[in-house]
Design brief:
Shape of chain B: globular
Strand order of the largest sheet of chain B: 10-7-6-18-29
Helix content of chain B: 25-40%
Number of strands of chain A: 8
Largest sheet of chain A: 4 strands, parallel
CATH topology of the largest domain in chain B: FAD/NAD(P)-binding domain
CATH architecture of the largest domain in chain A: 3-Layer(aba) Sandwich
Oligomer: heterodimer
CATH class of the largest domain in chain A: Alpha Beta
CATH architecture of the largest domain in chain B: 3-Layer(bba) Sandwich
Distance between the termini of chain A: 29 Å
Order of helices and strands of chain A: EHHEHHEHHEHEHEHHEHHEHHH
Bound molecules: flavin-adenine dinucleotide, iron/sulfur cluster
Structural class of chain A: alpha/beta
Number of strands of chain B: 34
Number of domains of chain A: 2
Strand content of chain B: 15-25%
Shape of chain A: globular
Number of helices of chain B: 19
CATH superfamily of the largest domain in chain B: FAD/NAD(P)-binding domain
Distance between the termini of chain B: 35 Å
CATH class of the largest domain in chain B: Alpha Beta
Radius of gyration of chain A: 21 Å
CATH topology of the largest domain in chain A: Rossmann fold
Largest interface: A-B, 24 and 32 residues
């Protein structure tokens, strides 16, 4: 399967591990990612509130470049236009994905806005017709196009014993956007992917809460408190690693973990990895190819648990099925997904 | 419809040639409903100039008695032979005007209605366009009317037996009322006991009388009533026929108990070694045996074997129940049986199901141990339930010191169901009261959008609960989580909600959360609807003939609905509908015969090629094929006049009375009058 690939600034710098592992995993799954030529920054989370028009134009330029580069070129005249598939643009970063799909949708719903943005793009000889790209998040493509079954078939070294807290962050499932692929309140695709890889997924109630974004630069108090809540929650559920799908989330949780510990007197030691890194490990790829070791909070000790039983002392929830004598507890509700595994 | 229509035989003028017909046209203002958008006077003046038309008038309300008298006077004074009324939908008033014609001695099928309200004045604001469309509709009606033929209604006998499907409180009420009036009732329920959802409840709002105390006597009455044949563990699989004469096939699922021998002693239940979670009656909070009944007072008293959990059925060993049964009532070899019933009317009272709380994952049901659904809580407070009425946490022993009750779970929410489930606010108030009663020092928080307490003594009950010290927080809950932020939240469930009255986000730590899940149509309501030939709305609730004026009758004659299968409702309304449906049926049976529309298809034998296409097209199985002479024939009593076969017949051998080819084509020509000025090509 062919996709346009928009890496975004982070993947060239701090999240190089995400880029490397994405490419490695895509190779195994037969997903072909071609980078957009001459792409620029997506505007990140804040530019839209600073200079709205410029932000639309900034992201619009990426859309225009991609649409031009990936449009089906030599379509035979006999093939009706609708039959030719809309080219797809994949973004691994949640902010890039949200901005690209948001701008595409806003331009489609407001012809005036589209006209203004195109006036700006015209200065560079570019033009974008809204709707001519389908913007998707990497996770969506991996689980829905490659599919859980194909992934399961590639697993060489199941992540048995590793307790994973799946962290989605708040951008990827923002409700109502084109390309939305999971429940905005309580997403589960990443949970399912981790189970397919053999990991033990711990309940992680804060999975879709905010990591603070760029608040670390603006108000450290706010950001560190948000991060503390996430780390505390993952630690309470005895996670060995937090797995993420966004370079911003990864950076905040990983790099600022020591700052959280200093501020609150805690001693969290939770490695934060990208889902593609764990996929690569399960596929039997060498850790070096996946950027493992680049994180601040070292993941090797946690990863050493792979292959162990991974059971922790006591399950938190009372009333689980196994009943002991004199146990008066009431049964827990039946959950169909649990049976699936 | 007035009753005397049934008696007075209509006097019809001899059928003249279309050219000699004398048509009266009446254009209704419908107050301002039509007159605001259509120039009704113009239409009337124009109509009077049309061929065949003897008189045309416009009038404020044609359906009023004065309006109807206008028609009657004209028929008699001006010798009208056809009447056209341009007004609302025939669903509203076709019967009214047919009645007027009949009273004046004109055969009621020589009347035609043009719907210029729903189809025209309500559909646009463009006065000019609406007026010209109204003229076209009137022209079409005139052209059709002149070709109409007098028809005589069909009379069929009504079978006095009634089938009631569903033995919840609505169905029980309907069955008992009919039985008490002396009519025989077959009461079919797919469950092993009657009682429905109400049998699971503890106390009932607003009076707090115990559900069992008011329900079980009715259940026992139904079982013992000489006029009721009770069929539990049974389902209707096929329905044939029409009002007055339905033929129904019932499937009796095997109980594996010989009912004639079983005394209901319960020894088998006691001795059965297979104890499993009861997902049905105890909604997963309690256990039952592989051989069991829903609850000790179940009616009938006979248990049922759950074959998926019976050790004998699964592994061929055990038979403990058979060994202990003192009357040898266990029969593992029972097979399902089928029974054919003949009934005149059918009342559906199949009730509702609960919304699945797992669909709102942010509320934690199934993940967080101490999140319960309303029905789980209802079983918990029930003295006969899994905790013998004690309010406890999932550990089965500790009483909650604080309880959060979340309203509108799955209701009033665009992501799930947009409608209000109607009974859950009151049930939530009842729960708040019961927590205070069982755990006196516990704090109770109700998170609500609005309190819907519209009902007799409902608001008073709300005030009572307010005075008991329940906290009310107005706002939809964002999430229920165990992710504590500070010491006060450790080990608790935290309910995060916006308190819209003070405009602040609040986090309330509690020990127990109760989700007031909404009501949904039964998962198979669409299949049931198609078995019985009635309609469902988008959400799966059965559609009534008229939401306000005819809530227990459906578009299919002889099929009635009652209770929560028609939409969410509490016990009082369910009972009211059960009674109403019974009264309607009793009224019909009392007439002994029923008048059917003579709008039926017939096959001209000489033109039929015997291709049998129509045989399969007819949705009512009304067409038979005579193999010997290779010709199809319509059984008039079964035909519903849908017209499907008329359109399907490649030899044009089938005619639908009142919808003949000539009538329909000339109506079309009339509608297109301004496209072909002067010339009317009659097919
Ligand atoms: C938690 C909770 C608390 C409540 N508390 C109160 C209260 O205190 N007071 C109050 O007034 N109301 C209360 N209600 C509402 C009350 O439950 C309903 O109003 C009432 O049960 C509706 O009765 P019904 O007969 O219409 O339907 P049901 O009770 O659902 O009965 C339907 C019957 O039809 C049977 N059936 C279904 N489909 C078929 C089929 N295809 N073939 C054969 N049989 C079939 C079922 O087995 C069942 O026996 C409460 C509801 C809930 C959820
Ligand atoms: S089947 Fe036998 S043991 Fe069981 S309730 Fe009936 S009579 Fe008693
Ligand atoms: S045969 Fe089945 S129903 Fe009877 S006692 Fe054994 S497990 Fe229970
Ligand atoms: S009755 Fe109350 S709780 Fe139930 S849906 Fe309506 S408003 Fe919500
Ligand atoms: S009109 Fe024809 S298809 Fe329709 S019910 Fe009558 S016989 Fe059947």
């Amino acid at each position: 399967m062919q996709y346009g690939y928009y890496p975004g600034c982070s993947l060239e710098r701090n999240a190089g591990a995400y880029h490397d592992s994405t490419m490695a995993v895509a190779g195994v799954l037969g997903l072909q990612f071609t980078e957009v030529d001459d792409w620029n920054c997506c505007g990140a989370t804040e530019f839209f509130s600073v200079h709205q028009m410029q932000a639309y134009a900034l992201t619009g330029r990426n859309l225009a470049l991609a649409a031009d580069q990936f449009a089906p070129k030599a379509a035979l005249p006999v093939i009706p236009v609708e039959a030719a598939e809309t080219p797809q643009l994949v973004a691994p970063c949640s902010a890039c994905y949200l901005n690209l799909s948001k701008v595409d949708r806003y331009l489609a719903s407001s012809p005036e806005l589209a006209a203004k943005v195109n006036t700006a793009l015209d200065a560079g000889g570019l033009h974008y017709d809204p709707g001519s790209l389908r913007v998707r998040h990497l996770l969506d493509v991996v689980v829905n196009d490659a599919g859980y079954d194909a992934i399961a078939a590639r697993v060489q070294r199941a992540l048995t014993g590793l307790r994973v807290a799946p962290y989605y962050g708040c951008l990827v499932v923002r409700p109502g956007f084109q390309g939305q692929f999971d429940d905005p309140e309580y997403p589960t695709t990443l949970d399912k992917l981790m189970r397919v890889l053999g990991a033990k997924v711990v309940d992680f109630p804060l999975k879709a809460h905010c990591c603070g974004g760029h608040m670390t630069q603006i108000s450290e108090d706010v950001a560190l408190e948000l991060l503390r809540r996430l780390l505390k929650n993952a630690a309470e559920y005895q996670a060995d690693v937090i797995v993420t799908l966004c370079p911003m989330c990864q950076l905040n949780l990983d790099v600022f973990q020591s700052a959280v510990n200093r501020r609150f007197g805690t001693n969290f030691n939770l490695p934060v990895l990208f889902f593609t890194q764990l996929m690569g490990l399960a596929f039997g790829l060498a850790p070096e190819r996946l950027g493992i070791g680049k994180e601040f909070v070292a993941s090797r000790p946690a990863l050493a648990k792979i292959g162990t039983s991974g059971e922790v002392e006591q399950e938190r929830a009372v009333g689980k099925r196994a009943k002991r004598r004199n146990d008066q507890s009431l049964p827990m509700p039946y959950m169909p997904e649990e049976e699936e595994r | 419809m007035s009753n005397d229509q049934d008696q007075i035989p209509p006097i019809s003028p001899p059928h003249a040639s279309p050219d000699e017909e004398r048509v009266g046209v009446y254009v209704c203002h419908c107050g301002s409903n039509i007159a605001r958008t259509i120039a009704v006077e113009d239409v009337a003046v124009w109509a009077e100039q049309q061929e065949h038309v003897v008189v045309a008038r416009d009038y404020k309300f044609m359906c009023s008695s004065l309006g109807q008298e206008l028609i009657e006077q004209d028929i008699q004074a001006k010798g009208l032979s056809r009447v056209v009324v341009a007004a609302c939908s025939p669903h509203m008033h076709e019967r009214t005007f047919r009645g007027a014609c009949q009273r004046a001695g004109l055969n009621p099928y020589l009347f035609e209605m043009a719907n210029i309200r729903e189809l025209t004045s309500w559909a646009t604001d463009d006065r000019e366009a609406a007026t010209s469309k109204a003229k076209a509709q009137v022209k079409g009606a005139i052209e059709r009317a002149v070709l109409q033929e007098p028809l005589e209604p069909l009379f069929v006998d009504i079978n006095p037996n009634t089938l009631v499907v569903g033995g919840g409180i609505a169905g029980l009420t309907a069955a008992l009322e009919l039985a008490d009036s002396g009519y025989h009732v077959y009461l079919v329920d797919r469950d092993s006991s009657i009682g429905g959802q109400m049998a699971k409840l503890d106390k009932t709002f607003p009076t707090l009388d115990c559900a069992a105390c008011i329900l079980t006597p009715k259940m026992v009455d139904a079982a013992n009533h000489p006029n009721i044949t009770l069929m539990t563990w049974s389902e209707v699989v096929a329905v044939d026929g029409f009002v007055g004469n339905f033929s129904v096939q019932v499937r009796h699922k095997p109980r594996y108990i010989i009912e004639d021998l079983c005394t209901g002693c319960g020894t088998c239940i006691e001795k059965c070694p297979s104890r499993v979670l009861d997902q049905h009656f105890e909604v997963g909070l309690g256990y039952h045996k592989a051989i069991d009944r829903n609850f000790p007072q179940a009616v009938p008293k006979y248990p049922v074997i759950d074959t998926t959990h019976c050790i004998y059925f699964q592994r061929g060993k055990c038979r403990a129940c058979q060994v202990v049964c003192p009357t040898n009532a266990i029969d593992f070899t029972q097979k399902e049986t089928f029974e054919q019933l003949e009934v005149g009317n059918i009342i559906l009272a199949t009730g509702y199901e609960q919304f699945d709380a797992r669909r709102v994952p942010q509320y934690g049901y199934g993940r967080l141990a101490n999140v319960f659904t309303s029905m789980e809580f209802e079983r918990m407070v029930n003295a006969a339930g899994p905790t013998s009425g004690q309010v406890v946490l999932r550990d089965g022993v500790s009483a909650p010191q604080s309880v959060g009750i979340i309203h509108c779970v799955g209701s009033r929410d665009k992501n799930y169901n947009e409608y209000c489930s109607r009974a859950c606010c009151m049930a939530a108030l009842k729960f708040a009261h019961l927590v205070h009663e069982r755990v006196p020092d516990a704090e109770v928080y109700n998170f609500y959008i609005d309190i819907r307490a519209a009902g007799k003594h409902y608001e008073e009950f709300y005030h009572r609960v307010l005075e008991e010290g329940t906290h009310f927080i107005r706002g939809r809950v964002a999430e229920v989580t165990d992710a504590a932020r500070g010491p006060g939240e450790e080990g608790k469930l935290i309910i995060q909600a916006e308190d819209t009255l003070i405009g602040k986000q609040r986090r309330i730590p509690v020990d127990m959360v109760v989700l007031m899940v909404g009501m949904e149509a039964r998962h198979d309501s669409r299949n049931v609807a198609s078995t019985f030939g009635l309609g469902c709305d988008f959400e799966g609730w059965f559609t009534e003939r008229h939401a306000k004026l005819d809530p227990v009758v459906t578009m299919t004659e002889g099929i009635l609905i009652a209770g929560a299968c028609q939409g969410p409702k509490a016990i009082p309304e369910s009972v009211a509908q059960g009674s109403a449906a019974a009264a309607r049926v009793a009224g019909l049976i009392g007439r002994r015969t029923i008048k059917l529309e003579p709008v039926r298809a017939s096959i001209e034998a000489a033109a039929c090629s015997g291709c049998r296409i129509c045989n399969n097209v007819c949705p009512y199985h009304a067409i038979v094929f005579h193999e010997a002479i290779k010709i199809s024939e319509v059984i008039t009593a079964l035909c519903q006049g849908c017209g499907a076969c008329v359109a399907a017949c490649p030899s044009a051998a089938i005619t639908g009375a009142h919808f003949t080819r000539e009538q329909v084509l000339s109506q079309i020509d009339g509608l297109l009058w301004d496209m072909q000025p002067g010339v009317l090509v009659l097919a």
